Structure formats: C-alpha cells, structure tokens
From TrEMBL:
Keywords for the protein's UniProt record, in alphabetical order: Plant defense, Repeat
Protein name: RPW8 domain-containing protein
Protein source organism: Linum tenue
InterPro entries: Apaf_helical, LRR_dom_sf, LRR_R13L4/SHOC2-like, NB-ARC, P-loop_NTPase, Powdery_mildew-R_dom, WH-like_DNA-bd_sf
GO molecular function: ADP binding
Superkingdom of origin: Eukaryota
Stored SUPFAM superfamilies: L domain-like, P-loop containing nucleoside triphosphate hydrolases
Length: 812
C-alpha cells in the first residue's frame, strides 16, 4: 500500500462521515421545520398581543419586538419551504437546515437575553406603579388589603366580599394583587356578569360545574347541588360582577369549603356578605389624567390648552370614571368655545333626585346632547336591547335603515361615530382573529370614505383599520356591538321622559315575568312609540293585554323560555317594518301564534334567533302574501324542514335569505330557486348542511352574493352554479370538505371575487377559470394560490390568507 492510498482511504472515511452527517441533518430538516412552525405559531400571537395591547411601549422595545415579529414570520416562510422541498434534494435541504439552525439560535438568543431584560423592566415598573398608587390611596388601599386578607389566607367558609362600583374600576384598584390571587387559587377563578335580568339556573349550573371541575356548566345543576361539600380541585374564587338583587345573590353563593366569592355591585349586601369595600371615586390628578386620555389622547393637559377650563369640566364629572371618559371623548377635537358651552351645560345640570346614579346620568347626557340629531336618535335606540348582551350588527343596521330613513352606508357611519365617542364598543371578530372592522365591514367603510358628507374621522378609520379599497362583498353577519350598562341606562333615562303614551320608545329595562302594569293601566289610549322593546319570561296567550300601536315600526322581543306566544297586538301595528325575536334561554324555544305575521303587510325584515320554526309557511297563506318582506334571518334555529314548504308567492319580494348556525339544515329545497328576486343567499356555520338545490342556476337573473361560509359537510357545488351569470361574490371559505370548484366556473362572467380560504381539499383550479374576465380578487390558501397565479392577468389580485385559530366563540 502506498502513502497516497493510505491518505485516500482516510479521506474517503472522513468524507463518508461528513456525508452521513449531511444526510442526517437533511432527514431531520422536516421535523425541525414542523417544530419551528409549532413554536412560532405559539409565540407570534403573544408578541402581537404585547405590541397591540394598548400599552405604550418605549421606542427601543417596540423596535425589538417588530424585529422579532419579522424574524418569526421569516421562520414560518422558511419552514414551509422546508416541508415542501423534496427529500431527495439533499443540497437544498441542507441549506434550509442551516438557515433554520441560525434562525433558531437568533430566537433563542432573544428569549434568553433582551426578553429577560424586558421582564425585569416590567416587574420594576409594576412595583413602582403599585407603590405609587397605594401611596395615593393611603388608608383606603390599606383597608382594601385588610378586607381581602381573608381571601389570601383562605380563612372562613363560603362567601367573600362585596362592593359598590363598576367592575373595571375595581379591577384597576386591585391589579397589583392579581398575580398573588392567581397563584393562590392556581388560576381557578371564574368571572360572571350577573346584570339585572339573570338566568339564575344557568348561572348556578356554571358555578357548580366550575367548582366540581365538570364540563356540564350549561346543563342541570341538580346532580351537584347539595352534594359538594369541598371544592375537589382545591381553592376556587368566584367573581360575580354587576349584581343587582339580594334574592339572586343568595342563590349564587355556595357554602363550600375552599370556595370564595367576590361580589361587585352598586349596592351593599351586608346580610349575605361578611365584609365589603367601597371603591372610591377618582380624585385630583387621577381624574385629570383619565379625562385627558380621552380628550387629548395623552395623560396630561397639553401646552396651549385652557387648564382652568379643563379642570372645571373635570370637577363637574365628580370623579366618575365613565363620565370622565365619555365626556372627554365628546369634547375631543372641539374648539374652545364648544368646551365653554359644555361647561355651562354641566353647571346647569340639575339631578332629578339626589341619587348618585341620576347625577351621573344627567352629567353624562351632555355627551349625547351635542350629537347630531340622527346620531343621537341612533344612540337612544341602543337602550332597546338587553343589558350585557351583544347586539348583532345586522339587526342594528336594519333597524336604523327602517326607522331613520338612512341607507346602510350612512347607518354604518353613525356606528363608527358612536364608537369613536366611546358610546358603544365594537366587538372583536373571532373568525379573522383581529379587530372586526379590519375586513368584515370594508364595503361600507370604503363607500363612506369616498362620501363627501362624512367627516375626516371616518376616513381615518378606514386608514387606521386597514380597509382594503374595493372589498365590496364582505359580510358583517358575525359582527356585534356591546354597550356599557351605564350607557344603556343613560339611553333609557333620556327616552323615558314625558308621558308613556307620548314616548318614541317603549322599553322594558330588564326581564320581567309580565308586561309593565303601567302600560296596562293606560292601554285604552293609543301609544305613539316607534320602537317597542319587550323582555319577559314565557308568555301565553292570556298573558297579553290589548294595545293600540298605530305608529310602531320596530318590535324587539327578548325572552327566556321554551315556548312563547307572539303578542296578539301585532295585529294593531299596521306600520311594523322590522320584527326581531331573540330567545336568550338555554334551549331552543317553540314559537306559537306565527299566523299573526300574515297581518304584517308592511313587514320588511324578520330576525328569528334560537327558536324552533314549524309553521312559518302555513302562517303565511298564498291569499295574504308578505309583499314587502325583503330579508329573513334565521340564527341558531331548528328549521325542521320548514323551508321545503315555503312558497315564493308567500314572499314575492324576498331579496336576502340568511341562515346561520342552524345545525338541522341538511339541504336547501329546490323551491328556493324560484325566489326570482333573491339577491343574497347566505348559509354560514351550518355544520350538517350538505347540498344546494340542483336547479340553483334558475336564480341567474337575480343572485349577486352566494355565501357558504364554514359548512364542513358540503362536498360539492351543483353544476348549475356556473349558470349564475350575475353572481358577483362567491364565499366557500372554511368548507373544509369541498372537493373542487365547478368545472364550468368560467361561465360566471360577472363574478368579481372568490373567497376560498381554508378549503383544504381543493388543490387545483378548473381551466375554464381563465375566461373569467370580471374576476379581480381571489382569497385562498398558499397551496392553491399558485394555480390561480397561473391565470393572473391585469386587475386580478391573488391574496394568500393568513391562518387564524381562535376559540373566542366558545364563550358565546
């Protein structure tokens, strides 16, 4: 053997070792990519939450978090490439593996370096802020700590403390204790909002189920009540917010070892609770700081502002946090003369009585009285809905359109203005995983932005919330509005002035067993109300009394029962345009007296929620069609094949049919295709829906929008879908078992937008799609985006959808 042979053998051996190492790293590349995707998907939402939590971060920290976010997004893209790469392409796999290793080291270095410094800084700030706050509160804070001491050391049985004030302010006062509470109770803390009209049975079931660590929180509590002597999982804290009634509270407090109850209320319940703490109003600098946050978007009076005038207005708010926030928002951006006028109005405000609540309402009314009349009227309408319940945006917009002579775009602009002034709250969209107005309502905002009569604030909303211009067909069926109960009280307080017969709104503020007696005493005279809002338990035919409502245009019925008889006085509402029936009970309710709808000749909009529909067709015989009915919405309903018997002659003008969360809907009957005025057909979140009518193409002259969102049992679209030549928008997103788009989709010449995100079984696009000249936007997953980009032409935008996973809907 020569020397060269010896070296060649050693080199070959080393080369084999290197090749083995390379192949091993290449083989592990895909598993590394999977692990990287998993960890990134867990970390990225947390970073985003920190960035957009509303807490102002220092510029350096914001820059670092932005950089980490970009790094994580780059890691996701890199991991996807690794998973898509062929296992035989060892060279590329090795490159990707090296890049992922570097990325992993970079992320690890941040987590073990700068992030630890962030945590230490936050802990330092938290300790400093806590000390400063408790120094200001002085003896009040020490009293709070003493009152809560029993909670921390676990002494005593059953119920805990109670208070007088709003939950938000109480939480702010004890946020320094939050970590100790969570550690003491091991995160076994249940928060419940009780309100004025609670379903006590449901609340007891939730509490007992939580204590027993059971998932039957919405079912019967009889199996637990009386048998639980000790919380099986250790200590439990139950927080009951917005409690109004002693009788209700007595039913919600359980004398169970290890269970503590904290009650937040406007009232004291000394007979039930062993200790109480009164949350103090804001004083001095605290009140000024909160007011300035709303009025100037900073925590201090800016230079150049009239500090004396600001302090006078703050003093008139009497330290009430919500009044400071709402009035500050109302004055934001207004000239100094406007502020002076507001100060005079506040000074002249005389309370109806000496109660603390009426003083608050009278001083808060200033923020509403300065609104334009139409906007003010829309705010007052919000009092017609139950407290602590989300209001479907579709219901609200329809109501405003019918009674205020506005179109949908202007109604939405009013909504934005009210939200901008903190008079209502826009609720987060669970589907998209970010603030609701970022996509779902873009049609209305994009039209509002170009409308000359709306102010610049609405245009700014379009820019800030990232509205995509031209996104014309997105829906707001899953959007809702909420309102603080004090603001609702303000709306009711302002509408309840004058004689009942002369009021524009007749509202039951809370759920009662029957209609108000004061209504019955004057029922012999006509009522002038435009809106009637009823909130009761079960009602039978004999529970109603006759009422003459010649001017009523909207009837809102809220109830909690398993059966419900619609009021006979609907017959005496000749102008009725919108009927809204919502069941808030735990079970679907059977509606009776549906035949009364045949007398509603002017009815334009019908909303039914959580009811069983058995006689909708027979309640509207052919001899008495509802010629003006334009829109039907069925939400959480048991349909029981009722749609099979509905004739087009019953609803000859029907233009919108929306069915949402109706689990017993399996197919849409063929007779649906005979509604030749139907422009929008929406079937969403119907998990057992499998089939559209084969003759759907018969709607080719009318149908513009076909929305089939989140119907996982739907496997195919009928061939006749391709005959819908006037269809402009097709939404099949989250139809996870849909196999393909129709082969003849190219015939849909008018189609402008397709939303097919999360259609995981659709891998390719029919060749005929190349002939769709009007198509300008496709939203899809990355896997199928390349097929669409193969047809990409001038004007077509292929948008790869981001995946969002959210469990907020579980709380509904």
């Amino acid at each position: 053997m020569t020397v060269t042979d010896l070296f060649a053998g050693e080199i070959a051996t080393e080369l084999l070792k290197v090749l083995f190492s390379i192949s091993r790293r290449a083989c592990l590349c895909k598993s590394t990519a999977d692990a990287l995707i998993t960890s990134t998907n867990q970390l990225l939402p947390i970073i985003q939450e920190i960035k957009y939590s509303g807490v102002e971060l220092p510029a350096a920290r914001q820059f670092q978090l932005d950089g980490l976010s970009e790094t994580l997004r780059g890691g996701l893209e890199l991991s996807r490439k690794a998973l898509a790469c062929s296992r035989w392409n060892v060279y590329k796999m090795l490159q990707l593996a090296r890049r992922m290793e570097r990325l992993e080291k970079r992320i690890s270095a941040f987590l073990h370096g700068p992030l630890q410094a962030h945590v230490l800084a936050d802990v330092h700030h938290l300790r400093f802020d806590s000390v400063e706050r408790f120094d200001r509160l002085d003896c009040s804070a020490r009293q709070l700590e003493q009152r809560l001491e029993s909670l921390k050391i676990g002494v005593g049985d059953g119920g805990g403390g109670g208070g007088g004030g709003w939950m938000e302010e109480a939480v702010k006062r004890v946020d320094a204790e939050e970590q100790r509470w969570e550690g003491h109770f091991k995160n076994r803390i249940l928060f419940l909002t009780i309100s004025q009209s609670p379903d006590v049975e449901q609340l007891r079931a939730k509490i007992l189920g939580f204590i027993a660590e059971s998932d039957h929180g919405s079912g019967s509590f009889g199996c637990y009540d009386g048998f639980i002597k000790e919380a099986p999982g250790g200590r439990v804290l139950i927080v009951l917010d917005d409690v109004w009634s002693l009788s209700v509270l007595e039913q919600l407090i359980f004398r169970i070892d290890g269970c503590k109850t904290l009650v937040v209320s406007r009232f004291k319940f000394s007979t039930v609770l062993g200790a109480s703490y009164e949350v103090e109003l804001l004083k001095g600098d605290e009140a000024v700081s909160l007011f300035c946050q709303s009025a100037f978007e900073r925590s201090f009076i800016p230079p150049g502002s009239d500090a004396s005038l600001v302090n006078q207005i703050v003093n008139k708010c009497k330290g009430l946090p919500l009044a400071l926030k709402v009035i500050g928002s109302a004055l934001r951006g207004q000239p100094e003369m406007y502020w002076a006028s507001a100060k005079k109005r506040l000074s002249r405000g005389e309370p109806i009585c000496e109660s603390h609540e009426n003083k608050l309402l009278d001083r808060m009314a200033i923020s509403v009285q300065f609104l334009p009349k139409k906007v003010r009227d829309c705010f007052l309408d919000l009092g017609s809905f139950p407290e602590d319940k989300k209001i479907p945006l579709d219901v609200l917009i329809n109501m405003w359109v019918e009674i205020h002579d506005v179109d949908e775009e202007e109604a939405f602009a009013i909504l934005v203005e009210l939200a901008d002034k903190n008079l209502l709250t826009l609720v987060k969209d669970a589907r998209l995983g970010f603030f609701l107005l970022s996509s779902s309502s873009s049609y209305y905002l994009s039209k509002i932005a170009s409308h000359s009569k709306f102010n610049k604030k609405v245009v700014n909303v379009v820019n800030v919330w990232g509205i995509r211009a031209g996104d014309l067909y997105s829906s707001y069926h899953d959007i809702s509005v909420s309102q603080h109960d004090v603001l609702r009280d303000l709306a009711i307080h302002m509408t309840n002035r004058g004689e009942i017969n002369e009021r524009k709104q007749m509202i039951m503020p809370r759920r009662e067993m029957e209609l108000p007696r004061e209504w019955e005493r004057i029922a012999d005279k006509p009522f002038c109300a435009q809106i009637i809002s009823i909130h009761t338990d079960e009602m039978n035919e004999m529970d109603w009394f006759a009422m003459n409502l010649p001017k009523a245009e909207v009837l809102i019925i809220n109830f909690s029962a398993t059966t419900y008889f619609l009021p006979p006085f609907i017959h005496n509402m000749p102008r009725l345009r919108a009927l809204i029936v919502i069941n808030h009970g735990s079970q679907t309710a059977t509606l009776r007296n549906l035949s009364i709808l045949s007398t509603c000749s002017n009815l334009r909009s019908l909303w039914l929620e959580k009811v069983t529909i058995t006689t909708l067709a027979s309640s509207n015989p052919e001899t008495t069609p509802l010629t003006n009915l334009r829109k039907i919405s069925l939400v959480l309903c048991n349909i029981n094949n009722t749609l099979d018997s509905i004739l087009p002659s019953t609803f000859p003008s029907l233009s919108e049919l929306a069915i949402d969360h109706c689990d017993d809907l399996i197919h849409l009957p063929s007779i649906t295709s005979q509604f030749h005025s139907l422009k929008s057909l929406s079937i969403t979140n119907c998990h057992n829906f499998r089939q559209l009518p084969t003759n759907l193409g018969d709607l080719k002259r009318s149908l513009h929008i076909l929305r089939l969102y989140a119907c996982p049992s739907l496997r195919m679209l009928p061939r006749s879908t391709c005959e819908l030549s006037r269809l402009k928008y097709l939404d099949v997103s989250q139809c996870v078992n849909l196999r393909s788009l129709p082969e003849g989709i190219g015939k849909m010449a008018g189609l402008e937008k397709i939303d097919m995100r999360e259609c995981s079984e659709v891998f390719c696009v029919p060749d005929s799609a190349a002939s769709m000249e009007s198509l300008r936007c496709v939203i899809c997953d990355e896997e199928v985006s390349w097929s669409w980009k193969g047809f990409e032409k001038i004007g077509l935008h292929v948008q790869v959808a981001e995946k969002h996973f959210n469990l907020d809907w579980l709380h509904e």
